[in-house]
Design goal:
heterodimer; A: about 90 residues; mainly beta; Folate-binding fold; four-stranded antiparallel sheet; two-stranded antiparallel sheet; B: about 200 residues; alpha+beta; Gyrase A, domain 2; Alpha-Beta Plaits; seven-stranded mixed sheet; five-stranded antiparallel sheet; 5 helices; 12 strands; about 35% strand
């Protein structure tokens, strides 16, 4: 089981959290203009990297807040946490 | 002064389903775990409105911090999430706590009466930590989860709010009343090997 560091509550067991999948996937502003391929990409196709993955978590059983984490999909080590809507840590030079 | 349209009736779901019981080990005189239902508690959930942070600071101050229970007069404020607190009081008529909070906080925070929505249990006894360790993933050691700590967590897949209220030496467990019987059964099952007393 992972120990996840909730930005509000501190370290808690993974069983208190819900996984929200890959982060930073914005819903297209005008879905009607998209081709089936583009809409399918938005709905189903994900990066699925081997290595660092930016993903969403919700502390469902605790403070009920969503946040982002950067997790290594091989080792499950989490190296950074940041708020919803914030710039990912690798991109702001940290 | 606003008045509630209807007053909630606060009764115990445990009284209808469980009976007081004591199981002692051979030679034991004091049960390892004591599980008691707390009656007559009023609860209200206070959630600060997003754009009211400065007004909130003027009214309430900044003493209410993460994962902490703070006593303000006769009311205990339990941290319940960012910008959200559970206020507990004893000896009030059902619904009166929400009305009391609504008067100064109306417009700055929303107040929801929850007295009828939760069952509250008190856990104590020399083996209480061993019993809780089977159900709760938090570190409840007295040096880590000190008096005045609180947290939302899960026990036996049920959402539970656990607190060590200042001035008391027990653990307080808040659970949605529909899960109260399940939680008591899980607690009793975890406590049986230490000997227990259950009172509702």
């Amino acid at each position: 089981m992972l120990e996840i560091e909730c930005p509000w509550c501190g370290a808690c067991d993974q069983s208190e959290f819900s996984y929200g999948g890959e982060a930073h996937i914005a819903r297209p502003k005008t879905p009607a203009d998209l081709s089936d391929q583009e809409w399918g990409d938005y709905l189903f196709n994900r990066e699925n990297p081997k290595g660092w993955h930016r993903e969403q978590w919700c502390h469902t059983a605790g403070c009920r807040r969503w946040f982002n984490a950067v997790r290594d999909t091989v080792t499950c080590r989490i190296k950074a946490y940041y708020r919803m809507g914030a710039v990912p840590p690798e991109e702001d030079g940290r | 002064m606003t008045e509630l349209i209807f007053k909630p009736v606060i009764d115990s779901p445990l009284l209808r389903h469980l009976e007081d019981a004591q199981v002692l080990l051979p030679g034991q005189t004091v049960p390892g775990v004591v599980i008691k239902e707390i009656h007559g508690r009023s609860l209200a959930l206070v959630t600060r409105r997003q754009d009211m942070k400065s007004q909130w600071g003027e009214l309430i101050g900044s003493a209410l911090v993460t994962n902490t229970v703070v006593a303000r007069g006769a009311r205990n404020w339990h941290w319940y999430g960012p910008g959200s607190w559970l206020v507990c009081a004893s000896g009030l008529e059902a619904g009166d706590l929400a009305v009391e909070l609504e008067t100064p906080l109306g417009g700055v925070a929303s107040v929801v009466e929850l007295s009828h929505a939760r069952s509250i249990l008190s856990l104590s006894g020399p083996q209480v930590l061993s019993a809780l360790a089977k159900l709760c993933s938090l570190d409840l050691h007295p040096k880590i989860f000190v008096v005045g700590s609180c947290a939302n967590t899960t026990m036996h897949h049920m959402a539970v709010h656990i607190a060590r209220v200042p001035g008391r030496d027990d653990f307080e467990l808040h659970v949605m009343r529909g899960f109260a019987v399940s939680l008591c059964e899980a607690l009793i099952s975890a406590s049986t090997e230490y000997g227990y007393r259950f009172e509702c």
